[in-house]
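User: Look at the shape:
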Amino acid sequence: QVQLQESGPGLVKPSQTLSLTCTVSGGSITTNDNYWIWIRQPPGKGLEWIGFIHYSGSTYYSAPLESRTSISRDTSKNQFTLQLNSVTPGDTAVYYCARYRGAILEYDYWGQGTQVTVSS
């Protein structure tokens, strides 16, 4: 059973960098054909896709966030990390990490989500 767990600070000041880590257990982040995703849900709004890191290490980001976003990984720890720069209160959201399986075209595992608030 694959499990994902987000971790990071719950409060970030405006203009600073938001950094979250997703720790994966029960499966390797380098397993073929998996995409490791970051998604967020602002209060009162729907899910917003942020970006992914592919099992190969390649990355892709949502166009509106691309200039502020970086996703990286540590294969020795089986973790992948989201960095979002120059945050504003508009970046306040519940942040989720998830796995998308290319073979079945589905999100099959999700983390529980972590609340991040941007406020001074």
Summary: The radius of gyration is 14 Å.
